[in-house]
Amino acid sequence: MVRYLFLLVASFLVWSMSSFAQDADTRKIYALIDDYSKARETRDTVLLKTILTDDIDQLVSNGEWRYGLRAAIQGMMESSTANPGSRTLTVEKVRFMDAHTAIADARYEIRNPDGTVRKMWSSFTVVQRKEKWKIAAIRNMLPAGAK
Question: Architecture of 2-141 per CATH?
Fold first, then answer.
Protein backbone atom coordinates (compact mmCIF):
# COMPACT_ATOMS: atom_id res chain seq x y z
CA MET A 1 0.00 0.00 0.00
CA VAL A 2 2.83 2.40 0.90
CA ARG A 3 4.59 1.58 -2.36
CA TYR A 4 1.36 2.29 -4.33
CA LEU A 5 0.87 5.61 -2.53
CA PHE A 6 4.50 6.57 -3.20
CA LEU A 7 4.10 5.82 -6.93
CA LEU A 8 0.87 7.80 -7.06
CA VAL A 9 2.45 10.85 -5.38
CA ALA A 10 5.58 10.59 -7.54
CA SER A 11 3.45 10.39 -10.71
CA PHE A 12 1.45 13.43 -9.65
CA LEU A 13 4.63 15.42 -8.96
CA VAL A 14 6.12 14.54 -12.35
CA TRP A 15 2.85 15.47 -14.08
CA SER A 16 2.51 18.78 -12.22
CA MET A 17 6.15 19.76 -12.87
CA SER A 18 5.83 19.04 -16.60
CA SER A 19 2.54 20.93 -16.72
CA PHE A 20 4.17 23.92 -15.01
CA ALA A 21 7.11 23.81 -17.45
CA GLN A 22 4.75 23.64 -20.41
CA ASP A 23 2.79 26.65 -19.10
CA ALA A 24 6.04 28.62 -18.85
CA ASP A 25 7.03 27.56 -22.38
CA THR A 26 3.58 28.52 -23.69
CA ARG A 27 4.07 32.04 -22.30
CA LYS A 28 7.52 32.19 -23.91
CA ILE A 29 6.05 31.17 -27.27
CA TYR A 30 3.35 33.86 -27.03
CA ALA A 31 6.13 36.37 -26.31
CA LEU A 32 8.15 35.04 -29.26
CA ILE A 33 5.25 35.62 -31.66
CA ASP A 34 4.76 39.10 -30.16
CA ASP A 35 8.45 39.80 -30.82
CA TYR A 36 8.03 38.59 -34.40
CA SER A 37 5.02 40.87 -34.87
CA LYS A 38 6.93 43.81 -33.39
CA ALA A 39 9.96 43.11 -35.60
CA ARG A 40 7.77 43.00 -38.70
CA GLU A 41 5.93 46.18 -37.73
CA THR A 42 9.15 48.11 -37.07
CA ARG A 43 11.21 46.31 -39.75
CA ASP A 44 13.74 45.31 -37.12
CA THR A 45 16.07 42.90 -38.93
CA VAL A 46 18.34 42.60 -35.88
CA LEU A 47 15.46 41.27 -33.77
CA LEU A 48 14.37 38.95 -36.60
CA LYS A 49 17.86 37.43 -36.73
CA THR A 50 17.64 36.54 -33.03
CA ILE A 51 14.18 34.93 -33.15
CA LEU A 52 14.34 33.01 -36.45
CA THR A 53 16.38 29.85 -37.04
CA ASP A 54 19.10 29.94 -39.69
CA ASP A 55 17.23 27.31 -41.71
CA ILE A 56 13.78 28.91 -41.43
CA ASP A 57 11.35 28.40 -44.26
CA GLN A 58 8.27 30.45 -44.95
CA LEU A 59 5.29 29.94 -47.22
CA VAL A 60 3.42 33.19 -47.79
CA SER A 61 -0.17 33.66 -48.91
CA ASN A 62 0.74 34.31 -52.56
CA GLY A 63 2.41 30.88 -52.75
CA GLU A 64 6.02 32.08 -52.56
CA TRP A 65 8.46 29.91 -50.61
CA ARG A 66 11.33 31.53 -48.76
CA TYR A 67 14.16 29.27 -47.64
CA GLY A 68 16.82 30.31 -45.14
CA LEU A 69 17.24 33.30 -42.86
CA ARG A 70 18.51 35.68 -45.52
CA ALA A 71 15.70 34.98 -48.00
CA ALA A 72 13.04 35.09 -45.27
CA ILE A 73 14.15 38.46 -43.89
CA GLN A 74 14.60 39.94 -47.36
CA GLY A 75 11.13 38.75 -48.36
CA MET A 76 9.60 40.08 -45.14
CA MET A 77 11.10 43.52 -45.70
CA GLU A 78 9.99 43.59 -49.34
CA SER A 79 6.50 42.45 -48.37
CA SER A 80 6.19 45.14 -45.70
CA THR A 81 7.22 47.76 -48.27
CA ALA A 82 4.92 46.45 -51.03
CA ASN A 83 1.98 45.88 -48.66
CA PRO A 84 2.00 48.76 -46.20
CA GLY A 85 -0.29 48.59 -43.23
CA SER A 86 -0.46 47.69 -39.60
CA ARG A 87 0.09 43.98 -38.90
CA THR A 88 -1.46 42.18 -35.94
CA LEU A 89 -0.85 38.58 -34.90
CA THR A 90 -3.08 37.07 -32.21
CA VAL A 91 -2.09 33.60 -31.04
CA GLU A 92 -5.15 31.36 -30.74
CA LYS A 93 -3.43 28.21 -29.49
CA VAL A 94 -0.12 26.50 -28.91
CA ARG A 95 0.22 22.75 -29.40
CA PHE A 96 3.35 20.92 -28.26
CA MET A 97 4.70 18.14 -30.45
CA ASP A 98 7.32 17.33 -27.82
CA ALA A 99 9.26 19.24 -25.15
CA HIS A 100 11.27 21.17 -27.76
CA THR A 101 8.83 21.65 -30.65
CA ALA A 102 5.45 23.36 -30.85
CA ILE A 103 3.00 24.84 -33.34
CA ALA A 104 1.47 28.24 -32.64
CA ASP A 105 -1.63 29.13 -34.65
CA ALA A 106 -2.48 32.82 -34.95
CA ARG A 107 -4.94 35.14 -36.58
CA TYR A 108 -2.99 37.46 -38.89
CA GLU A 109 -4.53 40.76 -39.90
CA ILE A 110 -3.14 43.53 -42.03
CA ARG A 111 -4.99 46.84 -41.71
CA ASN A 112 -4.40 48.55 -45.04
CA PRO A 113 -3.88 52.32 -45.36
CA ASP A 114 -7.38 52.61 -46.92
CA GLY A 115 -8.94 51.06 -43.79
CA THR A 116 -9.70 47.63 -45.22
CA VAL A 117 -8.48 44.60 -43.31
CA ARG A 118 -6.85 41.52 -44.85
CA LYS A 119 -7.70 38.58 -42.56
CA MET A 120 -5.44 35.55 -42.70
CA TRP A 121 -4.08 32.73 -40.57
CA SER A 122 -0.47 32.00 -39.67
CA SER A 123 1.05 28.86 -38.22
CA PHE A 124 4.47 29.02 -36.64
CA THR A 125 6.59 25.95 -36.03
CA VAL A 126 8.79 26.84 -33.09
CA VAL A 127 11.75 24.95 -31.71
CA GLN A 128 13.74 25.25 -28.53
CA ARG A 129 17.44 25.74 -29.18
CA LYS A 130 19.83 26.26 -26.28
CA GLU A 131 16.95 27.07 -23.88
CA LYS A 132 15.53 29.72 -26.25
CA TRP A 133 12.42 29.36 -28.42
CA LYS A 134 12.89 30.30 -32.10
CA ILE A 135 10.68 30.29 -35.19
CA ALA A 136 11.67 27.51 -37.61
CA ALA A 137 8.79 27.75 -40.10
CA ILE A 138 5.93 30.10 -40.94
CA ARG A 139 2.84 29.25 -42.99
CA ASN A 140 0.50 32.10 -43.95
CA MET A 141 -2.90 31.36 -45.41
CA LEU A 142 -5.58 33.56 -46.88
CA PRO A 143 -8.80 31.56 -46.54
CA ALA A 144 -10.64 30.97 -49.80
CA GLY A 145 -13.26 33.64 -50.39
CA ALA A 146 -11.68 35.97 -47.82
CA LYS A 147 -10.79 39.54 -48.64
Answer: Roll (3.10)
